[in-house]
């Protein structure tokens, strides 16, 4: 009976170890995803500003062309 108890304890510890490792891997993946999402958001904001500036510049040139005609 004692051997059976020891085996059960061993299996539980093994499962707990796998679970702990899995939690660490999942946490690392979530951290990487958060970093990538943050970088993509910053890039999108910068791109939006540049696009807005270029659009304003194009509309000003169009307005000048129309007004000078």
Q: Topology, please?
A:
Layout: H1 2-68
Span between N and C termini?
101 Å
Mean pLDDT comes to 87
Number of helices: 1
Order of helices and strands: H
Strand content: under 5%
Total beta strands: 0
Helical content stands at over 70%
What are its keywords?
69 residues, mainly alpha, 1 helix, rod-shaped
What does this molecule look like?
The protein has about 70 residues and is an all-alpha fold. Helices cover about 95% and strands about 0% of the residues. The protein has one domain. It is built from 1 helix and no strands. The longest helix is centred in the middle third of the chain and has 67 residues, at about 1-69. The relative contact order is 0.05.
Summed up:
This protein has 69 residues and is mainly alpha-helical. The chain has one helix and no strands. It starts with a helix and ends with a helix.
